[in-house]
Amino acid sequence: MNRFILPLVAAVVLIPILVLGLRSDPTALPSPYIGKPAPEFELPTLKDPAKTIGTANLRGQMSIVNIWATWCVGCRAEHQFLVELSEEGSIPIYGINWRDNRQNALNWLAQLGDPYVASGFDADARVGIDWGAYGAPETFLVNADGIVLYRFTGPLSWPIWEQEFVPLIAAGAGR
Amino acid sequence: MKRVIVLLTSLLLTTAASAIDTGRAFDDPQLQARYLKIISEVRCVQCQNQSIKDSNVPLASDLRREIRRLISEGKTDADIADFLVARYGEFVLYRPKMLALWIIPFLLLSIGGFALFRIVRHRMTLPMDDDATGDGQSQ
User: Fold this and answer.
1) Could you read off the pLDDT of A33-77 as tens digits, one per residue?
2) B4: CB partners within 8 A, 6+ apart
3) Higher confidence at residue B127 or residue A103?
4) A28: nearest CA in chain B?
5) Which of the four pLDDT bands, split at 50, 70 and 90, describes residue A105?
6) Considering the domain A38-173, what is its CATH architecture?
7) Quick check: A32 and B63 CB within 8 A?
8) What residues of B are in contact with residue A134 (Cβ under 8 Å)?
9) Residue A126 region by backbone torsions, left for phi larger than 0, else alpha for psi between -120 and 50, else beta
10) Domain segments of chain A: what residues?
11) Contact (Cβ atoms closer than 8 angstroms) between residue A64 and residue A94
12) pLDDT, averaged across chain A
């Protein structure tokens, strides 16, 4: 009987690890910023290059930072959701307009609506890289202390918002 | 005929990567060599399984530009690796610095080797006229 114990223990330890390995998405990239302060940035705003937007604006309340661009198909897909979310008014949305053309971006907001409190204009993609962006759209949830709670890659929608963001926002607000 | 063979053979020596980033990044051959080595060991996170040296997506060219900037600012290879890992995580490096990743395979191999050694040693002590099932139950 004794000789079965070791293989049994090994199997019990290994099987969950292997199952986790099978279920995880190898192309998903966890953000190294989760639980850490959001990367410092300061960018001229899209609408008025004389004004800037940056990490200081994120302090004091829960907010989301959305990395978007007019060349990005997924951004167009999620834009209607962002407009609806901003109309709901529960959380401020800051944008980082990533390696884009200023006029294209302004036209986009004029045509589709502007859900952003302000969008920073990141023409040379420096700030996008600082945030670890690897494909737009990406959306970060940042708490009142400027700590990144969550990063979602891909187009947002109400079901994803309810499932991934709302519980974190509720937990953060209840502290 | 000979010329055709030479031409065809020389075509075999060309690589696709030469299409990206035409022109040298650095005049100093030492810096250029460092630059080429670094970019060939950084994963393109947008087009995984390619290095940023071999990829022509915008993010790869942005990262090459950042690495050129860091090199020209006199940053060391370790500084540049830290810069990338802070933003994209360990996954971005084709040679991860996380020691456990390198040790675990050898650790598992030595555990297996030790178990095998113990089993073989045990069986060698069994009498030769064993029932040949080799499961050690005849003890």
Assistant:
1) 999 999 999 999 999 999 999 999 998 899 999 999 999 999 999
2) none
3) A103
4) B45
5) very high
6) 3-Layer(aba) Sandwich (3.40)
7) no
8) 45-46, 59, 88
9) alpha
10) 38-173
11) yes
12) 91
Q: How would DSSP label each residue in A30-88?
A: --TTTTSBPPP-EEEBSS-TTSEEEGGGGTTS-EEEEEE-TT-HHHHHHHHHHHHHHHH
Length, in residues, of chain A: 175
pTM, full prediction: 0.76
- Helix A102-112 and helix A73-88: axis angle, to 10°? 50
Q: Residue A7: its pLDDT value, please?
A: 87
Residue A140 CA, chain-centre distance (Å), reads 3
Bond before A137 cis per omega within 30 degrees: yes
A54 sits in the region (left: phi over 0; alpha: psi -120 to 50; else beta) called: beta
- Per-residue pLDDT, B139: 46
Nearest-5° Cα angle at A124, B89 to B41: 35
More confident residue, B3 or B75: B75
> Predicted ipTM?
0.79
Say whether A135 and B46 touch across the interface (CB within 8 A): yes
Amino acid at site B87: R
